[in-house]
């Protein structure tokens, strides 16, 4: 087999994960670099299956790494016609260094996106005037920000994303190169890892059906982690194969 044939085979194997989640791509605009992680997060929110959401990179995003916002002109129409944007800073700043956001661990990215989708779940339950009040409150009141961020975290936990959320929080709070001020902001405004674990336990205890849902969510997360790991291994195999055999095989395909 030629090198070109091998690379095509490896590439097709790497897209299996995203194809298995393609039903969650309806009305979604997703950069290819984060497609699999985004679809994995969306699979936990079947209520948003037909909701139009545009995911996009934006270097001008200040403060947060990601932000979920409604498209203002679409708020005037029917709720089912709303459009949302999740803006993502393409660079993750580590002290004086910058790293592409898609280089962070998959579980962290999924948890981060899951949190932003929690915001959209919150928006979906608000009418036009409630959204206006939300925007004003978020702009003016730190207490309002804290409540909004914890509401988004709670939606994520309720949708079986507790482990991904824990991965996200642990990554931020324990990363040696992240600015201390940023860590303090996360600790102050968002659910802590202990809060997340406690909430998962409360949801399981308060509703017997949640016990089965929690087990299903854990099995789902394990399957997703295994699939993402396979995709990453496939990517590494591509690199290793090219490095090892690239100068010895025919690239013409003949």
Question: What is the secondary structure topology, with strand pairs?
Answer:
Elements: H1 3-14, H2 16-20, E1 28-29, H3 35-42, E2 52-57, E3 66-70, E4 83-88, E5 91-94, E6 97-100, H4 106-124, H5 128-140, H6 142-158, H7 162-174, H8 180-189, H9 193-206, H10 208-245
Parallel strand pairs: 1-2, 2-4
Antiparallel strand pairs: 3-4, 5-6
Distance between the termini: 10 Å
Task: Give start-end ranges of low-pLDDT stretches.
Answer: 5-14, 241-254
What string gives the helices and strands in order?
Answer: HHEHEEEEEHHHHHHH
Radius of gyration: 20 Å
Number of strands: 6
Strand content: 5-15%
Largest sheet: 4 strands, mixed
| Overall shape | globular
* Mean pLDDT across every amino acid position: 80
Number of continuous helical runs: 10
Given helix and strand content, the structural type is alpha/beta
Q: Could you give the order of strands across the largest sheet?
A: 1-2-4-3
Helix content: 55-70%
Describe the structure.
The chain is of the alpha/beta class and 254 residues long. Helix content is 59%, strand content 11%. Helix 5 crosses helix 6 (142-158) and helix 6 (142-158) packs across helix 9 (193-206). The model is unreliable at 5-14 and 241-254 (pLDDT under 50).
Observed structural traits:
254 residues, alpha/beta, four-stranded mixed sheet, 10 helices
Summarize the structure.
By secondary structure, the chain is an alpha/beta fold.
